[in-house]
Amino acid sequence: MLKNGKVVEDVLKMDDWFAYKIPHTVEIDGEVENTKTLVIEFEKKRRVLSTREGFKEVKYVGNHSIPVPFWDKVHNYKDYEKQVLEKIGIKKEDIALLSTGADMDNLAVAKEEFDEFYVVAFTTAGAKYNAVRLGDEEADYIEKDLKTYKIVDGKLVPKEEVGTVNIILITNADLTDGAMARAIITITEAKTNAFQELDIRSTKHPELQATGTGTDNTIVVKGFGKKVSYTGGHTKIGEMIAKAVKRSVIEALIKQDELEL
User: Fold this and answer.
1) Which of 42, 60, 159, 170 is the most buried (most CB within 10 A)?
2) Domains of the chain (ranges plus CATH)?
3) DSSP string spanning the chain?
């Protein structure tokens, strides 16, 4: 179908929002690759909490797939992101955007409903190359003045990272800021649950079970329904968030990493 003159792939329509993928190209040093960006468009601006950008009022949220040949070529992410935004026709101030090395065709979507509430999780995931068990491993990267460096033989080398498990969670509940922040804990616990169920192992230390990857990101999107102030595991909304996230992470990992159960 067409959206603002662009060919898009329909993913999901609900209430006042519409999720779709935009196929497009990206270019680095004269090399051109095909890719897709997931865009979720809202009729009215929504307050979101992104682990990349913090709180933001936006008309769109999205997840961009960096093509495999470009994984080690995105040395200036800001310039690369600017190119992506130009390709999809959205201004930076209007969107909370994530990026991943996963194929957007391996996107997983899971929905949970109870009473008048719903939550929907849009997840891309891959754990072959940087699965970690936090608390038991040494880090490979350090950030200084918003620049990321890889630690190689005790020296710092400029390096850009791409997100590996990206989760966008949308609800019609009017979450308080605290509930949005608490949702990230619930999301993280559910993601780790999925890693445990699939027995995903640390990339560097296969003897350890991974808790996630070193580059995961999340966006929580609140709605305009009844107000909710807590999203922990003892609440129904917390249960719904966790179940949707777990299902979508498992599905996305199976698709991306071609896991055999």
Assistant:
1) 170
2) 2-257 (3.60.70)
3) -EETTEE-EEEEEETTEEEEEEEEEEEETTEEEEEEEEEEEEEEEEEEEETTTEEEEEEEEEEEE--GGGTTT---HHHHHHHHHHHHT--GGGEEEEEESS-GGG-EEEEEEETTEEEEEEEE---TTTEE-TTTS--SEEEETTEEEEEETTEEEE----BSSEEEEEESSEE-HHHHHHHHHHHHHHHHHHHHHTTPBPSS-TTSB--EETT-EEEEE--SSSEE---STTSHHHHHHHHHHHHHHHHHHHHHHT---
